[in-house]
Design brief:
The complex is a heterodimer. Chain A has ten helices and no strands. By secondary structure, chain A is mainly α. In chain A, helix 5 (about 85-110) crosses helix 7. The longest helix of chain A is centred in the N-terminal third of the chain and has 34 residues, at about 10-40. Helix content of chain B is about 40%, strand content about 25%. In chain B, strand 4 (about 65-70) and strand 5 (about 70-75) form a beta hairpin. The longest helix of chain B is centred in the last third of the chain and has 16 residues, at about 180-195. Chain B is globular and about 55 Å long. The chains are: A mainly alpha, B alpha/beta. The interface between A and B is medium-sized, with 22 and 31 residues.
Amino acid sequence: MDVILENLPLYWNGFLRTLFLSAVSGVIALVLGTLLAAARVSPVAALRGFSMVYVEVLRNTPLTIAFFFAAIVLPRLGVTFEQFEVAAIIALSTYTAAFIAEAVRSGVNSVPVGQAEAARSIGMNFGQVLNLIILPQALRTVVPPLINILIALVKNSSVAGAFFVLELFGYGRQLANANGDAVIPVLLGVAFFYLLLTVPLGILASTVERKVAIAR
Amino acid sequence: MTTHVPGDALVSLNAVNKHYGQLHVLKDINLQVRKGEVVVVIGPSGSGKSTLCRAINRLETIEGGTISIDGKVLPAEGKELAQLRADVGMVFQSFNLFAHKTILENVTLGPIKVKGVAKATADKDAMALLERVGVGHQAPKLPAQLSGGQQQRVAIARALAMKPKVMLFDEPTSALDPEMINEVLDVMIQLAKEGMTMIVVTHEMGFARKAADRVVFMADGQIVEDATPEEFFTNPKSDRAKDFLSKLLTH
């Protein structure tokens, strides 16, 4: 256990990096995923098609491919970044957005069709119906699956460790290499810090779920 | 039959047709409704009366014919359609109040977001409307906290807040407990007296007798009779209508 206490600053650094990666990617993924879900239910066929292809491709390929793409293919296409962290954020957020889009879409489908009809009947256009009536109700019903996706995102961010981004898992690997005799405590320490992020998210999920529930 | 002046029609359906797959739900429907007129549409289930009502603000698309509101043909999609819909109030069987908004917000949302009315003005107008339908004291509550009858009266206020030229009612009392039906009908009768143009799909024969200028009887996707309530209830011409009325009156 000493190895954890001795390297607490390192763990803390990694924890903050993971928190940063997850938070930034999470916010981008939520926005992008909601836009994709909106495109999926829009009256414009091209938008629906784009959203469907995006979701199917990103959802059905491994996250590592998204990372390779962001870290290696994008720079060759002329998109360069100073830090690998940017690539990690691109990969994590585009990948997670596909799952968020599907969750939000299921939420949209759970809102009774009469809500949209009533909104249209008082003269609202598609954007108003979606933004004022459907999404506020849909997002409330998808809080639990959204939090699940965000928990998965926190854990998925560890893949960044393999792409030269020093986050929790990256530091963990360094520590394990340096302390060959104490690999198990090192990894237990890593797991503990991940739990420090994911368990509160789960608690947040149930609190938010209770708060925003709408009676019908 | 009442006499119609064709140019005077506020709502005008000409040769409207619609299919659900094989089922021909609307067959060559022609209907003119003048300003201030109250038209009650009755008929057996599946006769197409709800579809007719929903087609008038294009919640149902049609395949043939035209529907015009105040001289303007209903457009297929887009901004013009939204504008026309704002002129047509709709009250649904299942109320469809916005579940995440308060009663007051349900009524003010349309004026504020669609018409750009200032919030203070919209709130004031909405409160007046809610008072008028007798649910003013419920303003801060959420729809689920109200009874069905109260919700339906709020739905009427929500539609009225847009100052529509015509109000459509799609079986407004069919989802209500018997003791709540009258509170909704009273509001509708009041509205009819004030000169609102109304198209009402209903099974409430009492309302048809009391408030309707015309009764339109539909069966199998067609308008079978179009008469004054007096004429229709005492002296129906078609066998279909006679049959329908005899089934109603035996209970």
